């Protein structure tokens, strides 16, 4: 069976790459795109894609659904819109595959309930790159032995959310086994606000934004006289595409929300 896919955010850095990935996959058909601006009737009209990319663009998800009936809705947009998109897709019985970051814990909990009640699969993946998933899993394991941890995430300067979804997910995974405790000197004082980074159960998260970067993260785990550094680099957005393909195929078989690709890779 061919999987019918719709993409939101097709004009963006990730979206453009995902459009080509789905178009080139023989097991999938890109049936529509969702935008919030009137940018043309089809992807070809935007001049960002070849003339034969006659995939229709909609600005309304219900209309997109009634005219193109996608099985899967891929979202690569922005933190402002992604919760609404995911909720609306589930309500229309379209399976969401979400790469957009910036969900609150409350939003994730609500979507988990909705997905379960509707028995509609949903995958929310803060990072689609296999190497990044491994970095997070190794960090979770290493934290059992070295629980003093600082995360440094480094991204391009067009990124809207901080800290990154990957850094938050890493901290969340680690926190499941790490006893909450403050790090650094008990009497430390920030001379410049923010110098010690964000505080997640005592772990510190530092967000670097610079032109030239794509997506990079280091997890530093300190112990007496030693430091373990786990690092992952995405040098281009092709690094995320195999995770998107895996998620589109896997979400077809699920009936609940899965948060993180670590739950679906063997
Ligand atoms: N999970 C993962 O592995 C990865 C996740 N990401 C995440 O994916 C998201 C997109 O990243 P990236 O491609 O770099 O960002 P871009 O800003 O390049 O792309 C986002 C696109 O979405 C469009 N857009 C905004 N709002 C809507 C909407 N309501 N409906 C449809 N389209 C909309 C934007 O249009 P306009 O600019 O005109 O507003 C833009 O073209 C981010 O949240 C990022 O963190 C990124 C890389 C990997
Ligand atoms: O905005 C990005 O670029 C990325 N966002 C995701 C995140 O917030 O972790 C995934 C990856 O790091 C790239």
Automatic annotation (TrEMBL):
<dbReference type="GO" id="GO:0009089">
    <property type="term" value="P:lysine biosynthetic process via diaminopimelate"/>
</dbReference>
<feature type="binding site">
    <location>
        <begin position="165"/>
        <end position="166"/>
    </location>
    <ligand>
        <name>(S)-2,3,4,5-tetrahydrodipicolinate</name>
    </ligand>
</feature>
<protein>
    <recommendedName>
        <fullName>4-hydroxy-tetrahydrodipicolinate reductase</fullName>
        <ecNumber>1.17.1.8</ecNumber>
    </recommendedName>
</protein>
<keyword id="KW-0220">Diaminopimelate biosynthesis</keyword>
<feature type="domain" description="Dihydrodipicolinate reductase N-terminal">
    <location>
        <begin position="3"/>
        <end position="128"/>
    </location>
</feature>
<feature type="binding site">
    <location>
        <position position="41"/>
    </location>
    <ligand>
        <name>NADP(+)</name>
    </ligand>
</feature>
<dbReference type="InterPro" id="IPR023940">
    <property type="entry name" value="DHDPR_bac"/>
</dbReference>
<keyword id="KW-0520">NAD</keyword>
<dbReference type="GO" id="GO:0051287">
    <property type="term" value="F:NAD binding"/>
</dbReference>
<keyword id="KW-0560">Oxidoreductase</keyword>
<keyword id="KW-0028">Amino-acid biosynthesis</keyword>
<comment type="pathway">
    <text>Amino-acid biosynthesis; L-lysine biosynthesis via DAP pathway; (S)-tetrahydrodipicolinate from L-aspartate: step 4/4.</text>
</comment>
<dbReference type="InterPro" id="IPR036291">
    <property type="entry name" value="NAD(P)-bd_dom_sf"/>
</dbReference>
<dbReference type="InterPro" id="IPR000846">
    <property type="entry name" value="DapB_N"/>
</dbReference>
<dbReference type="GO" id="GO:0016726">
    <property type="term" value="F:oxidoreductase activity, acting on CH or CH2 groups, NAD or NADP as acceptor"/>
</dbReference>
<dbReference type="GO" id="GO:0005829">
    <property type="term" value="C:cytosol"/>
</dbReference>
<feature type="active site" description="Proton donor/acceptor">
    <location>
        <position position="155"/>
    </location>
</feature>
<comment type="function">
    <text>Catalyzes the conversion of 4-hydroxy-tetrahydrodipicolinate (HTPA) to tetrahydrodipicolinate.</text>
</comment>
<dbReference type="Pfam" id="PF05173">
    <property type="entry name" value="DapB_C"/>
</dbReference>
<feature type="binding site">
    <location>
        <begin position="9"/>
        <end position="14"/>
    </location>
    <ligand>
        <name>NAD(+)</name>
    </ligand>
</feature>
<dbReference type="Pfam" id="PF01113">
    <property type="entry name" value="DapB_N"/>
</dbReference>
<dbReference type="GO" id="GO:0050661">
    <property type="term" value="F:NADP binding"/>
</dbReference>
<feature type="active site" description="Proton donor">
    <location>
        <position position="159"/>
    </location>
</feature>
<comment type="subunit">
    <text>Homotetramer.</text>
</comment>
<dbReference type="InterPro" id="IPR022663">
    <property type="entry name" value="DapB_C"/>
</dbReference>
<dbReference type="InterPro" id="IPR022664">
    <property type="entry name" value="DapB_N_CS"/>
</dbReference>
<feature type="binding site">
    <location>
        <position position="156"/>
    </location>
    <ligand>
        <name>(S)-2,3,4,5-tetrahydrodipicolinate</name>
    </ligand>
</feature>
<feature type="binding site">
    <location>
        <begin position="99"/>
        <end position="101"/>
    </location>
    <ligand>
        <name>NAD(+)</name>
    </ligand>
</feature>
<keyword id="KW-0521">NADP</keyword>
<keyword id="KW-0963">Cytoplasm</keyword>
<dbReference type="GO" id="GO:0019877">
    <property type="term" value="P:diaminopimelate biosynthetic process"/>
</dbReference>
<feature type="domain" description="Dihydrodipicolinate reductase C-terminal">
    <location>
        <begin position="131"/>
        <end position="264"/>
    </location>
</feature>
<feature type="binding site">
    <location>
        <begin position="125"/>
        <end position="128"/>
    </location>
    <ligand>
        <name>NAD(+)</name>
    </ligand>
</feature>
<comment type="similarity">
    <text>Belongs to the DapB family.</text>
</comment>
<dbReference type="GO" id="GO:0008839">
    <property type="term" value="F:4-hydroxy-tetrahydrodipicolinate reductase"/>
</dbReference>
<keyword id="KW-0457">Lysine biosynthesis</keyword>
<feature type="binding site">
    <location>
        <position position="38"/>
    </location>
    <ligand>
        <name>NAD(+)</name>
    </ligand>
</feature>
